[in-house]
Amino acid sequence: MFCFDCSSITVGNATLCCCAKHAMFVNFLYHIIEQLFEIDFAISLLRKNYLLLKMLSSMVKEHQSKQIKRKQEQEIKRKEAIEASNELTKALVEHLNVGVAQAYLNQKRLDSEAKQLHAGATNFAKQTQQWLQLIDNFSSALKELGDVENWARSIESDMLVIQQTLEIAYKTNRQIQSTQQDSN
């Protein structure tokens, strides 16, 4: 850069000019360029994290679908087990027909299995509730990530405007210098 005030030259970081304003302007431009590189790096990291979260989200969805399928299979097996136990009880009562005492023992076994089944269903309901809470927390985290991504886009847009403004200022300064040189 050529200084018209003192006829000195600025090259890179080395200033051969007695005008501090030119050196400050060059240092300011270098500082802005460094910040633009840092922001670009941060944006690329945010994009990578976003992709990882999308992958994790698809894994959670896949896990949920498998859990639903397992639950349906368990429900079918539970119904089959209940039907089988009912058929067994009927067959035992009809076949043995030993009397009320035998029927009482069979009923006692069924009650025990029903209690176990109820305990298992209660545990399954608790586990399902915990999964739903986990999914709600994950969904909230994804929403927050979306807010960060929007903020990053806004910052990127602002930086592009600043970059364009600095380019226009630089070109205008060059044209003014060229015009002044031509007039000399």
Automatic annotation (TrEMBL):
Family: Belongs to the BLOC1S1 family.
Name of this chain's protein: Biogenesis of lysosome-related organelles complex 1 subunit 1
Organism expressing this protein natively: Glossina palpalis gambiensis
PANTHER family found in the cross-reference section: BIOGENESIS OF LYSOSOME-RELATED ORGANELLES COMPLEX 1 SUBUNIT 1, BLOC-1 COMPLEX SUBUNIT 1
Domain of life (superkingdom): Eukaryota
Membrane-spanning residues: none
GO CC terms: BLOC-1 complex
Classification of source organism: Eukaryota, Metazoa, Ecdysozoa, Arthropoda, Hexapoda
GO biological process: endosomal transport
